[in-house]
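REQUEST ID: PR-0412
SUBMITTED BY: lab tech R.K.
PRIORITY: routine
TASK: structure prediction, single protein chain
INPUT:
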Amino acid sequence: MPVTYSVSIEVPNLDDGIRFYGHVFGYVEAARPVEGYVVLKSGDSRIGLLEKAAGSKPAVGSDEVRHYERHWTPVHVDFRVEDFEKTLEAALIAGAKCEQKFDGGNHSPIAFCSDPFGNGFCLLGKNPSK
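STATUS: complete
OUTPUT:
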């Protein structure tokens, strides 16, 4: 059975999220289907940004609260880009943090990063052998 998917990223402020993902990855607003949610697109790629206040509960009955310092999650987004170094520089200028970087050698360069809201992501460049 075919499956489609989308990825949504929680941010404390939609405008700040749109600015970051727009500046770094070229995403533009495609839709605001409901209050507090925006769909962004860049080429064939789409992501959703969901505005959730710091301190709010992530699920009914949870004792945890949202925070936007760096946090670990077992799921993250990989962004494959044409110009690895230029995109990494733009991300850092826009408030991302690079936690680890591998130049790749015979493999694609990769940087393990977090956005300004503490969400982890990987930045992947082109494989030099292709």
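NOTES: The mean pLDDT is 92.
REVIEWED BY: pending
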